[in-house]
């Protein structure tokens, strides 16, 4: 998968969501959490698409946790017997696991 603006694979990989933990209060962003709050409060958590998480993380507004498809459990299963792990069930069809992993690695 290449990092091309017009690449469908890149668009789909960037649309995957990651868990973000907010460090500070952010006004008018409460809708990201799906709740009724107007502002996103410090220490709150929300699932944010990768394309938006880049901005929040690099601006030092939020941190993220490694998504479950890249957890130690999955890595151990891949090391033990790679053929037993269905990557398509972890993130999606079409090689998104690799593209999403590259994006996580860059963060």
Describe the protein in words.
- The longest helix has 11 residues, at 96-106.
- The chain has five helices and three strands.
- The mean pLDDT is 84.
- α1 (8-14) crosses α5.
- The chain folds into two domains: 1-10 and 67-107, no CATH class; 17-66.
- 37% of the residues lie in helices and 13% in strands.
- Spans of at least 5 consecutive residues with low confidence: none
> Ends: how far apart?
18 Å
Tally of contiguous helical segments: 5
- What is the H/E order? HEEHEHHH
Question: How much β-strand is present in the residues?
Answer: 5-15%
The spatial strand order of the largest sheet comes to 2-1-3
Taking all Cα atoms into account, the compactness measure Rg is 15 Å
Choose one word for the global shape. globular
Q: In this structure, how is the largest beta sheet organized?
A: 3 strands, antiparallel
Helical fraction? 25-40%
Tally of discrete structural domains: 2
Give the strand tally.
3
**How confident overall, as mean pLDDT?**
84
> What structural class do helix, strand and pairing data support?
alpha+beta
Oligomer: single chain
Function: The GINS complex plays an essential role in the initiation of DNA replication.
Main location: nucleus
Protein name: DNA replication complex GINS protein PSF3
Pfam families: PSF3_N (PF22466)
């Amino acid at each position: 998968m290449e990092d091309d603006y017009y690449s469908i694979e890149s668009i789909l990989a960037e649309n995957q969501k990651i868990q973000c933990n907010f460090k500070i209060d952010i006004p008018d962003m409460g809708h990201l959490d799906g709740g009724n709050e107007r502002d996103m409060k410090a220490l709150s958590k929300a699932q944010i698409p990768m394309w938006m998480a880049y901005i929040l993380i690099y601006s030092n507004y939020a941190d993220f946790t490694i998504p479950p498809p890249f957890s130690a459990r999955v890595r151990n299963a891949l090391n033990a017997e790679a053929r037993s792990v269905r990557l398509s069930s972890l993130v999606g069809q079409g090689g998104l696991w690799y593209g999403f992993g590259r994006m996580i690695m860059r963060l």
